[in-house]
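Appendix C. Worked example: Calcium-binding protein
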Amino acid sequence: MTSAVKSQKFSILFDWIDQGGDGQLTRDDLRSMAGLFTGLAADGDDANVTAMRDAFEEMWRLLVKHGDTDGDGQVSRQEFIAVMEANITSPQHFESAVLAIADALVKALDTDGDGVLNRDEYVRMYTSLGIPQEHSGEAFTRLDRDGDGTISHAEFRTAITEFYLSADVDAPGNWLIGPFGPSA
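Step 2, the predicted output written as structure tokens:
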């Protein structure tokens, strides 16, 4: 059974992915999200663009295979929340459907090649992915666990993992795509 915290996060995630705004996830929604993510890569960064597109295709494949319970080729909010808990976040799928996107994204965003995301790179990501910029400073501060003014690849992976897997309402990773919790 999905915890209330995970259900809330998956519902927020559903709204973010539902690019058509129709209350149903489709392959086009996932492709639109892939386009937002790949748009962050520099020209000629084919490896990261391909990795992100492939990971979004894998996520769609898993959503339809395990979540489209009524066979209509779409995934409703209820179906999405259930499949996220049961399949996408399971150990056999989490790496290929979620962390693969995060890994390629960090590599693409690290425009100065220093192995970390600085505040400007992170804010650029937030804005380009359609998340209100006013949330980026707070999110950055929460995700910069060691307080060094950057988010390392490991810190970003930790945030992704917390967002998808943690039932702790106070986990910093919950802020990955904006405010979360009772104080949000």
